[in-house]
From TrEMBL:
Protein species of origin: Photobacterium rosenbergii
Superkingdom, taxonomy of origin: Bacteria
MF terms in GO: 4-phosphoerythronate dehydrogenase activity
Enzyme Commission number: 1.1.1.290
Cross-referenced Pfam families: Epimerase
Name this polypeptide is given: SDR family oxidoreductase
Listed PANTHER family: NAD(P)-BINDING DOMAIN-CONTAINING PROTEIN-RELATED, PROTEIN YEEZ
Chain ranges of the NAD-dependent epimerase/dehydratase domain: 15-182
Alphabetical list of InterPro entries matching this protein: Epimerase_deHydtase, NAD(P)-bd_dom_sf, NAD(P)-dependent_oxidoreduct
Length: 282
């Protein structure tokens, strides 16, 4: 990696966000590696120009000295993007911490140069009002606490060679929370503001990180448009032709508003999906 240039990127977790990110980077001519938990799915990554490897944490890395050639090549990279969502089972948050710490230690041992950890704005928890990149997190769920623990661990281990990217609620192809709220009745806190970010803008932000490694290590993303939950989800349901959700009458609270203007400035990033109300939910 000459003068900080990133020529090879490995993405741990080629799911809803990781796969389109890997496809985009491969199409740009960057040597791109991606992991899937099954060998069958890993093999299919080649169809997109991605070097696929089978990686199931923690089993695959239990004995670093016995790593396969493919896994060593995967981890010996200019940039490792850690995009490992927590499971939904009991103890999943603790497992996430153990898995990512093992992955980090093994990657450093093999020769990885930099990492990006995909985290969540849920680490801000009970914070109220406008939240920027310097707001002190207040995680109030076990999952959010696990992410914040990993953020601190990775920054301590990697120093300036680590970037934490906290993402707000994710929207994009085949993923929109309106589908879970459609037709529901008696939904509370309808006047709270939404904090959402589109898949396309997440990929663009990571691309900018690759082009110009930032001096700021903690970044976050959310569209600058923050309509109320009631206004937003009813309009998105209407656009999608779904039954409208019904919210109970509520007072306006000082809800959390994620301000990502600093991150966009640091990355020279212009969000394509900044206006949430005038964008198709998909």
């Amino acid at each position: 990696m000459k003068q900080g240039k990133i020529d090879k990127v490995s993405i741990c977790g080629c799911g809803w966000l990781g796969l389109p990110l890997a496809r985009h980077l491969a199409q740009r001519g960057i040597e791109t590696w991606g992991s899937k938990q099954s060998s069958e799915q890993a093999g299919k990554l080649a169809e997109h120009g991605i070097h696929g490897v089978t990686l199931s944490l923690p089993d695959t890395l239990a004995q670093p000295e016995t790593l396969t050639v493919e896994l060593k090549q995967f981890l010996d990279t200019d940039l490792l993007v850690i995009n490992v969502p927590p499971g939904r089972y009991e103890g999943a948050a603790d497992d996430l911490v153990a898995k990512v710490k093992l992955l980090s230690a093994t990657a450093k041992q093999v020769g990885c140069r930099r990492i990006v950890f995909i985290s969540t704005t849920a680490v801000y928890g009970a914070c109220q009002g406008v939240v920027d990149e310097f707001t002190v997190p207040r995680p109030d769920t076990r999952s959010a606490q696990a992410h914040f623990e990993l953020e601190r661990y990775l920054l301590a281990e990697w120093g300036s060679e680590a970037v934490i990217l906290r993402l707000s609620g994710l929207i994009g192809p085949n993923r929109h929370p309106v589908r879970f709220l459609s037709g529901r009745k008696g939904i509370e806190h309808g006047k709270d503001k939404v904090n959402l970010i589109h898949q396309t803008d997440c990929i663009a932000a990571i691309e900018q990180l690759i082009e110009h490694w930032p001096s700021q290590q903690v970044l976050h993303l959310a569209a600058p448009d923050h309509p109320s939950r009631e206004v937003y989800y009813r309009q998105m349901a209407d656009i999608a032709g779904l039954p409208l959700p019904e919210f109970v009458e509520s007072v306006e609270r000082n809800s959390k508003i994620i301000d990502a203007s600093k991150t966009c400035n640091w990355l020279s990033l212009t969000l394509r999906h900044a206006d949430l109300l005038n964008n198709n939910p998909e």
